[in-house]
Please model this.
Amino acid sequence: MNIALIAHDKKKDDLVRFATAYENVLSNHTLYATGTTGLRIMEATSLKVHRFQSGPLGGDQEIGAMIAKNQMDLVLFFRDPLTAQPHEPDVSALIRLCDVYSVPLATNMGTAEVLIKGLERGDLSWRELEKNKAERGGEYAF
Model:
């Protein structure tokens, strides 16, 4: 599965710790991240991460484009709700795209842990049905 890893500045340490704790699960998937977040994860783990621009420079939009093409299966976005973000419209658009395309989204560590445990058990395999549906013009293929 394709997994996006994003964190606001004050949440980057939390996401790095999370990626370190679940490195064995994440290593079985293709990882994408915004600039600095991806670099920090790669420095702290042995995970390979495809890095986009930083969020304010378009990284959120690059991940959003993958979501819109049904190429992203899970988004872990550790947001800082107490600090104003200059690119808040991009953040809102990314969250909206996850809802439109039924992409599971965690915006905090608690929800991320639930999703990662589900991923580990195979609970997110329904995403393959969503991809097939999109490829077939909106119809499920069983």
